[in-house]
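pinging the channel bc i need a second pair of eyes. not urgent but kinda urgent?? the chain im working w is below, pasted from the shared doc
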Amino acid sequence: MLPVIARRLKEARLRAGISQKSLGILVGIDEFTSSARVNHYERGRHTPDFLLLEKFAKALDVPTEFFYARDDDTAEMILLYFDLSKKQKKQALSSIKKLGETKQQMRKKKVARI
């Protein structure tokens, strides 16, 4: 199984519709080695350092955190949240907090019964 960073990098690049070579050039990798280097990152042979991941994120218009999302639902939530306005982000966080409070209340009731 591919490392999470490798999977997310390839997913983001394909979503952006650009080639490995183009992505490499966009982030400052030498044009003669860019395709091979990005290919190695996507196959998990090598792992880009954090600074390079930030460059990939900017070039692919995704948040850096996306590359670390282990499951697909979390990755999708990160992308959706990233695209929201500041006001919408506050509303989303408020809704999630309410959901979390409800779950915490249910746990407390369960523990109280025991």
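so The chain has two domains: 4-83, 87-114. and The chain has six helices and no strands. — does that match what u expected or am i reading it wrong
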